[in-house]
UniProtKB/TrEMBL annotation:
Organism name: Prauserella shujinwangii
GO CC annotations on file: protein-DNA complex
UniProt entry keywords in alphabetical sequence: DNA-binding, Transcription, Transcription regulation
Residue intervals of the HTH lysR-type domain: 4-61
Protein's UniProt name: LysR family transcriptional regulator
Family from the record: Belongs to the LysR transcriptional regulatory family.
GO molecular function terms attached to this record: DNA binding; DNA-binding transcription factor activity
Species lineage: Bacteria, Bacillati, Actinomycetota, Actinomycetes, Pseudonocardiales
SUPFAM superfamilies: Periplasmic binding protein-like II, Winged helix' DNA-binding domain
Amino acid sequence: MDDLETRELRYFVAVAEELHFGRAADRLGIAQPPLSRAIRGLERRLGVRLLDRDRRGVALTEAGGVLLREARTALDAVAAAARRTRRAGDPRRPLVLVTKAGASHELLRRLLDTAASEPGAAPVEVLLCEVGEQARRLRDGHADVALMHRPFDDLAGFDTEDLCVEGQVALLPAGHPLAARDQLTLAEVSDVPDLPLARWPRLDGSYPDGPGPEVRTQSQLAQLVALGRTLLVIPASSRAWQWPDHVAVPVVDAPDVTTVIAWPPTGHSPAVASLVRAAARLRETGLPVPAG
């Protein structure tokens, strides 16, 4: 039988991440012998060796690596299902909309106003996050709907509606010579010896190669730009968090960015449907394209 219990998966993930039965048992709050028996039983049922054990320690086999990835996904899905179920059972709960801090500010403001005018609309709670976090918040059940940006954000598996398309700008320190330009090209902003492009993490958490600083938050980035240590290219609407020490210059050949409203297919509740209708109404009335 291939049925796996969530308890077994939690036990295995703890051992696979700690690579030590004693530490895994402490983490789980159980004794080591039943943990060892559970892992051996799991291996027998699956008919594969998940862990190599010797006097030097514990190591994952190739099969163990596959189960670790799949088990994390399964446990996340179970946890998300529990959160969504609890939220669906609370008639007073607000709808949670997640978006990058500082992104699409005017669109967000107008969307909230339009949504509030829908008959019987649920209250909307705004959850602000850092770059690239919306997909995780939707998948783990902490948010119901998101504003996301194509081609930068991970939209795999979500239902989406396009809202608006905009260009991009280079955000520069106000005193830099390029800040006086009316427009720039990608080639020009990619080759500034004294002002290397900031590097955001990829979807897998790794950073692209390059001389620019590694950044994870908008506040880090804003201060590094103001200090003259980096520049970046961002959607024009993200200028909402621009400091007085920054200047935004249009990058004429940068790819357009499409803002979308996204939600998990399994989470299409009446409240989500109402918010999506509000977004469609807003799009039909003509959303302002941010000035480049």
